[in-house]
Predict the structure.
Amino acid sequence: MKPESANPNAGAAETIFNAALTFSAAERPAYLAGACGDNLSLRQRVEALLGAHEAPQGFLPEQPTSSSPTMKFDAADALDEAVGQTIGRYKLLERVGEGGCGVVYVAEQTQPVRRRLALKVIKLGMDTKAVVARFEAERQALAMMDHPNIAKVLDAGTTETGRPYFVMELVRGIRITDYCDQANLSTKDRLGLFIKVCQAIQHAHQKGIIHRDIKPSNILVTLHDGVPVPKVIDFGIAKATEGRLTEATVYTQLHQFIGTPAYMSPEQAEMSGLDIDTRSDIYSLGVLLYELLAGSTPFDAKELMACGIDAMRKTIREKEPVRPSTRFATLKGEELTTTARRRSSDAPKLIHLLKGDLDWIVMKCLEKDRSDRYETANGLAADLKRHLDNEPVVARPPSNLYRFQKMVRRNKLAFTAIVAVVAALLIGLGLSTWLYVREKAARQELLASQLDLARLHTETEEVRKKAGDQAGQLRETVKLLNFSRTNLDQAEIYYRQTLKWQREMIGSDSPDVAAALLGLTQVLQDEGKLPEAEETQREAVAVERKLTGPDDTQLAISLGNLGLMLQRDGKSTEAEPVFREALAQLRGWAAKGPAKEYSSLGVVLHHLALVLRDQKALPQARSLAEEAAELYLRHPDWPSNERKHALQVLGDILQDLHATDYGALASFESLYRERLADDQKHWPDDPSQWNGNIENLVGILNNEHKYAAVDQVFEDLLPRSGVSQSQRMEALASRGDLRARSGRWQEAAADLSQVIEADPLDQYYWFVLTPLLIQAGKIADYKTHCKAMLDRFGKSTDSMITERAAKSCLLLPSAVGPDDLTVAGKLADNALTQGKGSPWFHWFQLTKGLAEYRQGHFAASVEWMQRIQKGTPPRRDVGWDMCEADTYLVLAMAQHQLRQPEEARAALARGLEIVQTKLPKLDGGDLGAAWYDVLTTYILMREAKETFEGTLAPEQK
């Protein structure tokens, strides 16, 4: 007898069997006749599978006498008798789903923690080698990924009869299409969910995984605190793009295709020698987007299966689908009305919305030639975001009219005003001409208008008496408007109108006026109108002073917010008395107020400490910072970012005071050691529960420069039996990061090299390792690493990846040979092409200029550096300081090569000035989170100094 994998009918039988399950018993004979044609053996095989599927065979053998039986899968299908039994340490509670090759249960784990999970196990009767391999592939694929919109794998194993299973997080959700219809989501909200799905698929692609079966039933929507969250599941037929997923590699037989026909790409259906890549998933995403928008797939699933395998393949490969707007417009009667209502719209409006950008985006996904589709899922998501932001989309051929329409939609208020002015002028001209010809009639109409105005005035007076109610309604309207940044201008208008009415009708000093002022302040901040926001906050504080007592918490919080605004704008002198007034009031509430007042007290304490530190009043600053840190430590449930900030402020002040004993931090160190020991006692086999206190303890030890103690924490953690491989790698990565920040180059390089060896798919550590190898003097290792990095990322289309890989390999002149230098230059070009509109575009320009310099194109390098200098920085921070320093250093070297000595020396002097005044020192103890960019700047600085050797001033050396 031939093995299963050698039977040419095996794959087709499985596909037809899965499709037949969607038909009723009465419809199946007709479907099988069309799908199997004259192939009698194929039809017999499918009917045997259907019979095994529906046969009422027992699921479990005789119950063993033990109190905790273990499940044995030895029936043709998974029936409800399995509920209540166990697989390993998981008890099955209920059966929730079934796919082509697996059954899914809700399971309960009791040791070492109690929680409910989803357990998927292969079905008996479907245990061909191909199915087992695909099941194993899904388990391995999910285990490789960590994304909030992809179901996480938590455990795996086999049953007593050798059936593989795996355990993942329990997703209580429904199909994405069903959720959108049941919730009557608008097109905009549907696109928001779909963008998250694209980001999840992009994550899978970056991990080297192609899903190959994207469809609504494999994307469930669940609610987290009322917010819908899509989860991608069922990677059962996923394909690895880099390396195999399991030892039993999934093999797609000749004449066998895997996937769901209605969502299958042409290359999947074609079954040629052409390999399947990530663009196959882009096609399936396009089909899903088509269904979310128009209510149906491009090709009807039942019609595809009914016409037979060959006709179905021909349809998918050759027939062009109609546009979503056309498909929706062809719906009739109740179906048209229902589909529109499920999208919170009416039919004409929805057709208009689909026509244009959305039609183009969907059809680009559905191109028969995959080279014409989007290159990545992120590219598809970015185009949808452009559509939502009223920007031109890549999928649509550009035209001047199209760009003009987009500009009008983005600037509705300005264009409305222009149209109104032009219309007013035209109306005025027409009215004047008409009045000139019909003077008598105009006088009569004028009199009538005056009478109408008098009547309108009377009605207005009645409305003004109800101003209080109207103001309340406007406040509710503003609450809704504030959820959308596109409506901030309307929110500002409503707030200002509300304030005008309230002041006229109920006076300037009222709680409603104070509330409206605070709301207007928030809107102005969101709009970026910071001076106006500060002035409005001052007005709110003035009103609250008149309304409340000296210990009112709301006034204290408003004062604290005003102080933060002043501090942010560099007005430390003005911020100090405001913070002190807020502090005096909050101290009165510390003993009796709720937790939020404690939190506000902590914020005011450590921000006032920062103000005093700026004023060099270090003893006072230290006292306040210690009080804030102790307050946060007594309340561990508060936000960790506030607690970390308070501890960091205290550490910085102690360093300014040149403290050597770190007495205050030592007490915090002792506290966190006790908490860590308590964690290890209560959860000895679950180190994930220790993370918070490990992070805090390591942060304090690092502030104290107790690097040996930091190493000891990690040395104690890594050998623990309960620590998983991924946790070990995370710990090594954290230790490497801390070592790099404190200038321990060789040790940091050793840690991060182990991380790369364990998980070569995580590109971040490839990039950050390069300056460490240079700093550690391991130039040969650096060259080898650059060569491997170019081989791995040389064909990437992700702008951030290509820019980082190119720059990493361009740090030293002798790092790469001529061929590899060409690859690095192309990566820099790709970053510029793919990264247009990115907030990091100035970094991409810098890397392009550095590539030109390395290739000897000095004039082109100068031109790129000058482009950066002429541009507007996205924000003034240490990231821009490093980019600006790099720009001047590369510019100086390029101008030196062009024999421009005066310009070159001026550029070098400016670059060195930025490094010396704005960047942390290499021997300063902590380079900060951006240590990678700091190191690259110092490497370029050393090269620039060597270029100008003999011409530097003493202070520059």
The chain has a mean pLDDT of 75. The two ends are 82 Å apart (CA to CA). The chain has 41 helices and eleven strands.
